[in-house]
Design a protein that fits this description.
Number of strands: 17
Low-confidence stretches: 1-15
Catalytic activity: [thioredoxin]-dithiol + NADP(+) = [thioredoxin]-disulfide + NADPH + H(+)
Organism: Streptomyces decoyicus
CATH class of the largest domain: Alpha Beta
Pfam family, one: Pyr_redox_2
Order of helices and strands: EHEHEEEEEHEHEHEHEEEEEEHEH
Protein name: FAD-dependent oxidoreductase
Radius of gyration: 24 Å
Structural class: alpha/beta
Keywords: Flavoprotein, Oxidoreductase
Oligomer: single chain
Number of domains: 2
Shape: elongated
Distance between the termini: 54 Å
Amino acid sequence: MVETTNDKNSRAPHSDADEVHDVVVVGAGAAGLSAALLLGRARRKVVVIDAGEPRNAPAAHMHGFLSRDGLPPGTLLELGRAEIVGYDVPVLQGRVEQINHGYYVRMAGGAVLKARRVLIATGLRDELPDIPGVRERWGRDVLHCPYCHAHEVRDQPLVVLGTHPGAVHQALLLRQWSDDIVFLPHTLDLTAQDRAQLEARGLHLIEGKIKHLVVDDDRLRGIELADGHVVPRAAAFLFPRPVPHDELLTRLGCDKNDAGWVVTDRTGRTSVAGVWAAGNVVDPCAQVVAAAGTGSSAAFAINTDLLDEDVDRAVEQHRHAAAAVR
């Protein structure tokens, strides 16, 4: 049985493949909700489907979103859901299993929705390194984005874990927030240029494989290396491997770039007619505010595409009606 929210206006639409929605939005993060808000205000028949797995759920606060700086991520989504429900856009809790080229959206449990257009905003997941303690501290004092979290740990002793090639740039960037940064290459092979840049920026390199994170009184205290040496630190940064939730787009046959990410135009239109994508599912670097913007851009384009179709249909019907009275 498909679960729905408690609000009577957020109940699942009737599972009837003959009922046609203008747009089915898959994913109720910043991108999906922003798109649904604009389309709802445009009086389109829209439904949002969400599996309830936001990427930033471990974080206590989000930053860099004008007028919403410091707001808990979950609160932003609650506010967004309330706003779209006010425009008669229901939110259906569940997981989409399949979308075919006729835009029949099939959910786990059997519900099927028919759509004229589809927007995929399913985000991504962060694949974390297999270092004991990292997953438990993720989003608390083991962090990723300097723009999102570094200000809150400014001027503190920080460490960057060399678990991904992007860690070097991350460490160079973090120097703007603290002058006490240790870089642990771990298993990362640093080039001569990497070392020169890190040293020039005043970062301290400590060789050795990471054994585990040292936590005491529910706080990160340091990083223990394989030789038993503990590097005292107040917070750690690492660069996770972003893995997009793009299975639905892949099954539809959407084109991808050499890096394996689905390709869209500036409005989020994919290579498959009638299918758009927005947010982190196609852009791993998009912060919350940027993801919201891509959702709005996609909604503008989708509404215009639907309008073109509506006008063409109206012209054809008008011609037929005129010919019938001659």
